[in-house]
């Protein structure tokens, strides 16, 4: 075997974290935080979108939490080591090409650092690997991976206002396709799919229609602040559009941990340093599952009422040459995926902090030409994240607000029901 290096050296190699180091050294050195960072590294290297990273972080969070739960009271198993094997099992099965270069050495370091006997090592490995296999098996049956028969129209065939069509920037290889349309049928981790129709019912008729006063008011803001040329958008706001998206695929960046990783790292900075690894694992299981379950609920609405994007409406009725600051995502506009994910994770973090939001934290930028940002309240950062999608030219405000509300409802449920894991045990939604 290769010579082991220290855990701290491994963390240095991981690098490129989206935020400043956690305030508490206990968090930085724990098995849970180490493998959270490794999951972020996988997301960066594969340049995964926020939707894909949400699912991956859910898998890793659940795997580590289950390892601590199932190792409890079993003297033959080292709980920390079982959680490392569980996280490695999930990540290696999802991304086998990265296992030798990114995942195997950190796992070997954990084995060496544990100092356990061969028998305990093997028992811990057996438990962690089984958990990873169970999660991979559940994922393989996810209806969100099935074929979709939904096909939007094209701008020159637009028949009705308010209806989603491919946008001009989406036509032509390799962008002439939808992103994850069957996530609308996805298998949630904790939030039952049977509850999604009732949760989302108020939003199915909610989007403001073209020509209404509400639509015109919101559209005026996007016209003035969301275009490539936007005289009413400040330089800070221009940076905000990229800052809160992260340098993910399609944003012009070279890969980041995404908004999902951003919320993870804010959490690492603010969680009490007294948390045990098991408490940390419970938290990150809640956070990761809230990201993905919120996406499934948001996607259900997106494809029930597929709404056009700002570029479609604006070019048709207001300014034929208008283009958004950032590329338009390849799925319907309402509600916002970004803010659904954000609302799910945010609600879990705020609940974990007892409802308190007045914390000071610094967020490290993914972009070399955008400065790090410091906030004194979680709500200020959340509001800025929502505005970022308007500055990007991708959304009207209502899509942000309603998606955040959907995500928050999902996150609240998950926070109170983390032990009711139903992943892989549900029938898909009936349409």
Listing every helix as H and every strand as E from the N terminus to the C terminus, the arrangement reads HHHHHHHHHHHHHHEEHH
Mean pLDDT: 88
In total, the number of domains comes to 2
Distance between termini? Answer: 53 Å
Radius of gyration: 22 Å
Strand content: under 5%
Overview of the structural elements:
It comes from Chlamydomonas reinhardtii (Chlamydomonas smithii). Keywords: Signal. This is Phosphatidic acid phosphatase type 2/haloperoxidase domain-containing protein. Residues 1-25 form the signal peptide. By secondary structure, this protein is mainly alpha-helical. The protein folds into 2 domains: 7-143, no CATH class; 149-416, Vanadium-containing Chloroperoxidase, domain 2. Helices cover 54% and strands 1% of the residues. It has 16 helices and 2 strands. The protein has helices at residues 7-14, 25-28, 31-46, 50-71, 79-94, 99-114, 118-140, 196-200, 213-225, 235-243, 258-270, 277-304, 310-317, 337-352, 378-391, 397-416; strands spanning 361-363, 373-375. A two-stranded antiparallel sheet has the order 1-2. The N and C termini lie far apart (53 Å). Mean pLDDT is 88; it is low at 1-26.
Offer a few descriptive terms.
single chain, 431 residues, mainly alpha, Vanadium-containing Chloroperoxidase, domain 2, 2 domains, two-stranded antiparallel sheet, 16 helices, 2 strands, disordered N terminus
Topology:
Elements: H1 7-14, H2 25-28, H3 31-46, H4 50-71, H5 79-94, H6 99-114, H7 118-140, H8 196-200, H9 213-225, H10 235-243, H11 258-270, H12 277-304, H13 310-317, H14 337-352, E1 361-363, E2 373-375, H15 378-391, H16 397-416
Antiparallel strand pairs: 1-2
């Amino acid at each position: 075997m290769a010579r082991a290096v220290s855990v701290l050296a491994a963390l240095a190699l991981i690098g490129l974290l989206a935020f400043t180091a956690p305030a508490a050294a206990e968090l930085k050195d724990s098995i849970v935080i180490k493998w959270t960072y490794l999951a972020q590294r996988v997301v960066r290297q594969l340049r995964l979108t926020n939707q894909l990273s949400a699912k991956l972080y859910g898998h890793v969070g659940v795997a580590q939490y289950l390892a601590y739960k199932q190792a409890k009271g079993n003297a033959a198993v080292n709980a920390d080591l079982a959680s490392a094997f569980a996280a490695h099992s999930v990540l290696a099965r999802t991304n086998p090409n990265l296992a030798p270069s990114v995942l195997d050495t950190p796992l070997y370091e954990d084995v060496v650092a544990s100092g356990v006997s061969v028998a305990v090592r093997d028992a811990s490995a057996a438990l962690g690997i089984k958990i990873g296999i169970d999660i991979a098996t559940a994922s393989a049956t996810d209806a969100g991976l099935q074929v979709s028969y939904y096909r939007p129209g094209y701008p020159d065939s637009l028949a009705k206002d308010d209806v989603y069509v491919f946008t001009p920037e989406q036509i032509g290889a390799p962008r002439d396709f939808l992103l994850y349309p069957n996530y609308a049928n996805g298998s949630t981790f904790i939030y039952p799919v049977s509850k999604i129709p009732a949760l989302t019912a108020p939003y199915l008729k909610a989007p403001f229609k073209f020509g209404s006063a509400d639509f015109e008011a919101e559209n005026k803001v996007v016209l003035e602040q969301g275009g490539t040329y936007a005289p009413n958008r400040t330089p800070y706001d221009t940076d905000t559009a990229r800052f809160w998206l992260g340098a993910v695929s399609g944003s012009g960046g070279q890969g980041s941990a995404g908004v999902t990783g951003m919320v993870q790292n804010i959490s690492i900075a603010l969680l009490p340093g007294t948390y045990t690894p098991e408490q940390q694992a419970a938290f990150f299981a809640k956070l990761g599952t809230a990201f993905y379950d919120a996406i499934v609920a948001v996607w259900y609405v997106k494809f029930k009422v597929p709404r056009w994007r700002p570029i479609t409406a604006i070019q048709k009725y207001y300014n034929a040459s208008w283009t958004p600051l950032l590329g338009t995502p390849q799925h319907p506009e309402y509600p916002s995926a970004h803010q659904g994910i954000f609302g799910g994770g945010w609600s879990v973090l705020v609940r974990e902090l007892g409802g308190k939001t007045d914390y000071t934290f610094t967020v490290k930028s993914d972009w070399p030409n955008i400065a790090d940002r410091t906030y004194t309240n979680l709500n200020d950062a959340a509001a800025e994240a929502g505005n970022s999608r308007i500055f990007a030219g991708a959304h009207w405000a209502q899509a942000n607000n309603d998606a955040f509300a959907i995500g928050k409802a999902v996150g609240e449920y998950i926070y109170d029901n983390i032990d009711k894991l139903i992943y892989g045990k549900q029938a898909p939604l009936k349409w």
